[in-house]
Design brief:
Length: 225
């Protein structure tokens, strides 16, 4: 089964409308997490829904918020988010948001490794930016990832995936790149990303300064699947 042809990633990054994280949790679970909405999303092709706050978040105040959804139907995704009730639910959660659909970057190295039983912490590192060409970016990316996967795993890496923004039909291929790393060790992740050789190699991929950030699961019971 070719994952490059099977799934799409929907990212929604924005600012939470509720003033506290607990109020945001309640709004999210009542809207996105309502049983009828979960069932509708799944029926239309939503395979996974995960939520995150910045890795350095402290206290009870709400702030930035990130949603990562994996879908296997573009038609279903568009139909779900065209629903006025879904849009109203999103407005209860976000004061502003940037939804983007991404497709897997074909030919870019990726990996998914199992987590040891006692390693339950999760951290997500993302990077987003423009590349000069897909072919050039692929060469730089694959040399970097394939050469560093052993060190990344030793530091606590679980997975690495790459995407390009989904271009509208009939338009040139998009050159906006997005990558997602999942980690089980926050300290190991920070040390790995702070390696100047890694950062130097990563910057060679982009035609302009990329945006990078680290995220973690918010406190409390948030409905995910």
């Amino acid at each position: 089964m070719d994952q490059n042809r099977l799934t799409y990633l929907l990212t929604i990054r924005g600012t939470l409308k509720p003033k506290t994280l607990e109020a945001a949790r309640s709004a999210h679970n009542e809207a996105a997490g309502a049983p009828a909405n979960v069932a509708a999303a799944r029926a239309l092709g939503d395979l996974s829904h995960m939520v995150y706050v910045p890795g350095d978040h402290q206290g009870t105040a709400a702030g930035e918020f990130l949603v990562l959804d994996v879908w296997n139907s573009l038609e279903g995704l568009n139909k779900f988010f065209a629903d006025t009730h879904v849009q109203q639910g999103a407005e209860l959660i976000f004061s502003q948001r940037d939804p983007v659909v991404w497709q897997p970057a074909e030919g870019f190295a990726s990996y998914h490794l199992p987590a040891p039983h006692d390693k339950t912490d999760r951290f997500v590192g993302i990077v987003r930016g423009p590349v000069r060409s897909r072919a050039e970016a692929q060469k730089v990316h694959n040399n970097l990832v394939e050469g560093a996967v052993n060190a990344a795993r030793a530091a606590g890496s679980l997975s690495h995936e790459s995407f390009f923004r989904l271009a509208p039909p009939g338009s040139p291929e998009a050159l906006e790149f997005f990558a997602v790393d999942v980690w089980m060790d926050g300290q190991g992740m920070a040390k790995y990303y702070d390696n100047p050789e890694f950062m130097k190699g990563l910057m060679q991929m982009f035609s302009a300064e990329p945006a990078a950030s680290v995220w973690t699961h918010p406190a409390g019971q948030w409905i995910e699947w």
